[in-house]
Amino acid sequence: MFSAIKLRFSPEITFHRQPLAIWRPIVVGVSGQMKKALLALLFMGLTVMTGHTQTITWTNTAGGNWSVAANWSPNQVPGPTNTAVISAPGTYTVAFDENAAIAGMVLGGSSGAQTFSLGNYTFTLNGMATIESNGQFNLNGGTLAGTNTLVGTINWTGGQIGNSANVTIATNGTLVLAGVNGSDYPLYGILTNAGTIDLDSG
Questions:
Q1: Helix, strand or coil for residue 145?
Q2: pLDDT tens by residue, 14-71
C-alpha cells in the first residue's frame, strides 16, 4: 500500500521542442587552397571552444567536504569543465558544501559505499552523472540545476530541481522519491523520464 506523495510543480514549467539548427560555413571569393586553410582554422577554433573535460578524482576515503582541494587529485575542486570522479573503494560521504558547477560525474567504486550528499547549496551539473552500484546520490536538500542526464539510482528526499534545470532520467536510471509521508518534491524545471520513478515514501 502506497503512502500519500505530493509532487509540487511550478506554473512556469513549459515543455517545448526546439528545431535542430544546422550551420554550414560558407567561404566565397577565395582560391581553393585558401578556402581549405580558412575552413581548417575555423574548425580548429570550434574544437577549442568545445573544450576538453578534465577528470578530477576524489582521494579522501575518510570522507569530507567537496570544497577542500586537498580531497581531490589533482589538488583542485572540480569546476565547470571538469568531470568529478568519486570511485575510491571504501565507505564514506562527500558533503556538498558550496555552490558549484561541473561537466560530469561518476559516483561509485568497486567496494564499500560512496555517498554524495547534496544537503544544501546549488549543484549545477551540465552533462552526465553515472551512479554505479556502490554509489549513492542523495538529493536531500539544496538545488539540482543544469542540463543533465542521470544514469543509475538517485534518492530524492529533500531540496528541489531548480527552475533552470533540464534533467533527464536515462533508460537505465531510477529516481527514488524517498521522503517521509507527505513530503514535497519541488520541481521547477523540466524533468524527462526515460527510466523509472519510484514512489518509495517512508
A1: strand
A2: 334 444 444 444 444 555 666 565 555 554 544 444 456 799 999 999 999 999 999 9
Q: Give the span between the Cα atoms of 116 and 120, in whole angstroms.
A: 12
What DSSP assignment string belongs to 41-73?
A: HHHHHHHHHH--PEEEEE--TT-EETT-GGGEE
Nearest residue to 81 (alpha-carbon basis) of 108, 54, 120: 54
* Contact call for residues 181 and 202 (beta carbons, < 8 A): yes
The residues near 48 (Cβ < 8 Å, ≥ 6 apart) are none
pLDDT tens across 107-132, in order? 999 999 999 999 999 999 999 999 99
CB 174: neighbour CB atoms within 10 A? 19
Q: How far apart are the first and last CA of the chain?
A: 11
Instruction: Supply the pLDDT for residue 105.
Output: 98
**63 Rama class: left (phi>0) / alpha (psi -120 to 50) / beta:** left
